[in-house]
Design goal:
about 80% helix, mainly alpha
């Protein structure tokens, strides 16, 4: 489609609603993945802390 330089393309309300829906869908997916990623990292940190505490207990028993 070729437009003249003085012509302007205008979007109707349906087009804007579709654009907003796409943006909200992408943002929702990103937020969901961020929350999942944050939970996984928190679990890893907690597991690492528990493992370190167990290792410290074992080391202290071995030193006796």
């Amino acid at each position: 489609m070729t437009l003249q330089p003085d012509q302007t393309v205008r979007l109707c309300a349906r087009d804007w609603i579709a654009i907003v829906a796409i943006v909200l869908t992408v943002c929702g997916a990103m937020i969901t993945n961020f929350i999942y990623h944050d939970r996984v990292l928190t679990q890893l940190v907690v597991q690492a802390e528990v493992t370190n505490k167990r290792l410290d207990k074992i080391e202290s028993k071995l030193e006796r």
